[in-house]
Structure formats: structure tokens, C-alpha cells
Specification:
The complex is a heterodimer of chains A (112) and B (114). Helix content of chain A is 0%, strand content 53%. Chain A is built from no helices and eleven strands. In chain A, the strands form two sheets. In chain A, strands 2, 4, 5, 9, 10 and 11 form a six-stranded mixed sheet that branches. In chain A, strand 7 and strand 8 form a beta hairpin. Chain A starts with a strand and ends with a strand. With 114 residues, chain B is mainly β. In chain B, 4% of the residues lie in helices and 55% in strands. In chain B, strands 2, 4, 5, 6, 9, 10 and 11 form a seven-stranded mixed sheet that branches. A four-stranded antiparallel sheet of chain B has the order 1-3-8-7, with no helix packed on it. Chain B starts with a strand and ends with a strand. The chains are: A mainly beta (112), B mainly beta (114). Chains A and B meet through strand 4, strand 5 and strand 10 of A and strand 5 and strand 9 of B.
């Protein structure tokens, strides 16, 4: 059973546009929500992460929005660039647990 | 100075064979993992070791056996390979995942079973 559900499966955005990827989780014990970015032929790498005590976190063009009551969080990429083209994974884990659960991934393509 | 390194990067083999993938991390982390990424890019945890002790063992066939000779190494041995084992296997490490949430992944080992 997938504990973190991610959508869409794929996303095509024009350069300069906003990319939005959504995730929903079921386990209310989750308290750490990272996003990982994976380029072809490489392993995933941490992009940005949030804890549920805040509703938003911004790092450069990347923003996580978090809605604890709805058990949802999303990644927004502002001014999307072709170099952002990659697969993005949301994930969740809970305190004192070394078990990170990943969403199914979103393949983002940013067209020039 | 690669942080998490896996070998081999590519592995092509016949059904029924036994193969191993090696992983080493030079980050000084206490916990290491194996993840499987299937053709649809889905990442699923297989095993987790903390200081050479198995702490997560997801439901994987017992043909898969992890071995951790020390906390910097976690190898994956697969017996009697099947077509469905074809995937990319990622090794990862972390230090206090609950605090940092950061997994450091290797570049993956693509296994193709013919």
C-alpha cells in the first residue's frame, strides 16, 4: 500500500512557467516531508524539505506548501527552466524512523 | 571523493545466476539502505542497516540478502535471478534521518536479467 500518493505522473511546462506537483499522505505520524530531484542516470538528491510546524518553505525558486489538516503538500517551481527537467519525488518519514516512503514520482519537462 | 559509490553501474546477466552489488559510503553515516527503482521510477525501500544491524527488512524475496561488513559498506547479494529483478538498485546512507531527513544516494546499479 502506497503511503504517499503523488500527482501528476508527468508534467510539461513552458520555460518561465510555474510547475506544481502535489502529494498526499495517509499516516498522521509522518512529520518530515522532503522533495527529491532525480536527473537521468543519477540518484535522487534532496531538493527542499518541510516539517509540519510551518505551512510554507521557500528556497530560491522552489517552494513547499503544506496543509496539515488535508494531509497534503505540494512543490511549486517558479520561473521553470529547462535545467529543471527531471523526475521529482515527494517523500515522508516520521521521528526516530529510518524509513523514508516515496511517492511514485513526477517526470517534469520544461520546454524552451 | 564520491560520497556513496556503488559497483557495478551496469549488470547484465542470465536468469538463475547469482550476483552481488557493492556499496560504500565515506560520509561517516551510521545508516545505509538499499532501494529498488522499477521501470516506472517507483522507489521502494528494501533494507536498512544501522551500525551493521538490520533495522528494516521489507517484504522482499529471501533471494535478496544484504551484508554489512562494517558501517561504511552495505552489499546486496541476489540469488537465482528472475526477470522481475530487472531494475535500478540504489544504495543510500543517512545520519540521523529523523533530524535531517536527508538520504544520500549513490548513482545506482542497473540490473538487467535476460
Amino acid at each position: 500500500q502506497q503511503q504517499v500518493k503523488q500527482s501528476p505522473q508527468s508534467l510539461i511546462v513552458q520555460k518561465g512557467g510555474i510547475s506544481i506537483i502535489n502529494c498526499a499522505y495517509e499516516n498522521t505520524a509522518f512529520d518530515y516531508f522532503p522533495w527529491y530531484q532525480q536527473f537521468p542516470g543519477k540518484g535522487p538528491a534532496l531538493l527542499i524539505a518541510i516539517r509540519p510546524d510551518v505551512s510554507e518553505k521557500k528556497e530560491g525558486r522552489f517552494t513547499i506548501s503544506f496543509n496539515k489538516s488535508a494531509k497534503q503538500f505540494s512543490l511549486h517551481i517558479m520561473d521553470s527552466q529547462p535545467g529543471d527537467s527531471a523526475t521529482y519525488f515527494c517523500a515522508a518519514s516520521y521521528d526516530n524512523n529510518n524509513d523514508m516512503r516515496f511517492g511514485a514520482g513526477t517526470r517534469l519537462t520544461v520546454k524552451p | 571523493d564520491t560520497a556513496v559509490s556503488q559497483t557495478p553501474k551496469y549488470l547484465v546477466t542470465q536468469m538463475g545466476n547469482d550476483k552481488s552489488i557493492k556499496c560504500e559510503q565515506n560520509l561517516g553515516h551510521d545508516t545505509m539502505y538499499w532501494y529498488k527503482q522499477d521501470s516506472k521510477k517507483f522507489l521502494k525501500i528494501m533494507f536498512s542497516y544501522n551500525n551493521k544491524e538490520l533495522i528494516i527488512n521489507e517484504t522482499v524475496p529471501n533471494r535478496f540478502s544484504p551484508k554489512s561488513p562494517d558501517k561504511a559498506h552495505l552489499n546486496l547479494h541476489i540469488n537465482s535471478l528472475e526477470l522481475g529483478d530487472s531494475a535500478v538498485y540504489f544504495c543510500a546512507s543517512s545520519q540521523d534521518l529523523a533530524a535531517t531527513g536527508e538520504l544520500f544516494f549513490g548513482e545506482g546499479s542497473r540490473l538487467t536479467v535476460l
